[in-house]
Specification:
Elements lengths: L5 E4 L5 H12 L3 E6 L3 H13 L4 E5 L5 H15 L4 E4 L14 H26 L8 E6 L3 H4 L6 H21 L4 E8 L12 H12 L8 H12 L10 E4 L4
Parallel strand pairs: 1-2, 1-4, 2-3, 4-5, 5-6, 6-7
Helix pairs in contact: 1-8, 3-4, 4-6
């Protein structure tokens, strides 16, 4: 990339977020690594990326809380300067049978997976939008194939959050498309990360993938990361309001 570019990745300390951060470093981006509780992992990743030559700042924030998000973006501004891309990757997976639903568990899931995207996108648009004095940029939202498949048993709440994110992605794209901001989403399928511990872990997901995925295997975080950074970069300059499935045909 010829010009310095700054990217903020939420939920960056592990799994897909970590892979996206590594891909961004390889492409020469300066990176804001958001984490909530995984400080050790975030600090270790930051040092790894610095060894690759990237400029990195670690940003602790619970992105389900708007006050945390506002503080995080201010810290990003001070450390790295203008924002050029946001990856809304933070989220949690939960198995909640409908008979176990209560105000606490459902609200927690929607706060982490949906409200966080609104709060972060708000701050990103205020910085990148040409209507607000910015120079444009890109937002990539991390959805899931659960939004169209419904997920596994107990997955109605999780699938609902991802369905909401799909709709949010399209609506936001229509709202800010003339303001220099491209908005797209990714729907990963069975990706081998520890987020699946709630459903038996990576090994169980690999077994499921052999029969549930047309390609016969689970995906890797790196395969998702490459698509995310393509959507964030100039090569996807006319891709807008789209959802890219990275799911092996599932």
């Amino acid at each position: 990339m010829s010009d310095p570019k700054n990217i903020l990745i939420t939920g960056a300390s592990r799994g897909i977020g970590q892979a996206i951060a590594r891909q961004a470093a390889q492409q020469g981006w300066s990176i804001g690594l958001n984490y909530n509780q995984s400080q050790t992992e975030a600090m270790s990743l930051a040092e790894e990326l610095r060894q690759m030559g990237a400029k990195v700042i670690c940003l602790q924030a619970d992105v389900s809380q708007q006050s945390h998000v506002k503080r995080m973006f201010s810290e990003f501004d001070e450390a790295l300067g203008p924002l050029h891309a946001l990856i809304n990757n933070a989220g949690i997976l939960a198995s909640i049978m409908i008979t176990d639903v209560d105000e606490t568990n459902v609200h927690r899931l929607y706060s982490a997976n949906v409200f966080s995207a609104y709060y972060c996108a708000r701050e990103a648009v205020l910085r990148m939008s040409t209507a607000h004095g910015g120079s444009g940029g890109a937002i990539v939202n991390m959805s899931s194939v659960a939004s169209r498949l419904g997920g596994l048993a107990g997955g109605s709440a999780y699938a609902g959050t991802k369905g909401a994110l799909d709709s949010f992605n399209l609506a936001l794209a229509k709202e800010v498309g003339t303001q220099g901001i491209r908005v797209n989403a990714i729907r990963p399928g069975l990706i081998a990360t520890e987020i699946h511990n709630v459903h038996g872990g990576i090994d169980q997901m690999k077994i499921l993938a052999k029969t549930a995925v047309p390609m016969g295997r689970s995906g890797t975080p790196e395969e998702v990361a490459k698509v995310a950074m393509w959507l964030a970069g100039p090569e996807a300059s006319y891709v807008h309001g789209s959802i890219v499935d990275v799911a092996g045909g599932r």
